[in-house]
Amino acid sequence: KNEVEQSPQNLTAQEGEFITINCSYSVGISALHWLQQHPGGGIVSLFMLSSGKKKHGRLIATINIQEKHSSLHITASHPRDSAVYICAAQETSGSRLTFGEGTQLTVNP
Amino acid sequence: NAGVTQTPKFQVLKTGQSMTLQCAQDMNHEYMSWYRQDPGMGLRLIHYSVGAGITDQGEVPNGYNVSRSTTEDFPLRLLSAAPSQTSVYFCASSYRLGVTYEQYFGPGTRLTVT
Fold this sequence. Notes:
The complex is a heterodimer. Chain A is mostly beta strands. Chain A contains no helices and 11 strands. By secondary structure, chain B is mostly beta strands. Helix content of chain B is about 0%, strand content about 55%. Chain B has strands at about 5, 10-15, 20-25, 30-35, 45-50, 55, 65, 75-80, 85-95, 100-105, 110-114. In chain B, strand 5 (about 45-50) and strand 6 form a beta hairpin. The chains are: A mainly beta, B mainly beta. At the A-B interface, strand 4, strand 5, strand 9 and strand 10 of A face strand 4, strand 5, strand 9 and strand 10 of B.
């Protein structure tokens, strides 16, 4: 069993739909990261969470430390949101990250 | 700032050849890491560094060497390339922000070993 598991692996949505990607982890963490990897391969950091909820534009990330679970939500999805979304658990003792396998999101017009 | 830069973008090697993947950052970040990304698997840590002169092994270090002589540069050396090292390699740098570490990734190097 992976230490960080994401679901679903693949997600296809119609433009405008509300999207949720889930991440569960089994290790103790100091933070949970959400990353976005574009079709060209570049990876950018979307959120770092150690508790609660963060919002940036149409993206919302939440974390429940007790349940070891985090979600990434996209409201009013758009084709430009099509990408791989990756969650990563940051270990409690330092900067090392353990990554989930990623969720491939495709948003159709 | 250029951020995190990696060279080359693409490389094809024959089995047994050696090469160095270059990584540089101009943000004065203490922490730098090398990851490999393979289909069906998450990014896996190869080696990392918490500062100049300090390196440590990650999850999959075999067949790779690193050094960190300056804060800016963190090259990854493949000693004797094998087909199992065909992958996309990402370098990342980070800095501490409270209990979290803000991550910056390079554009990646796609390596094929034949």
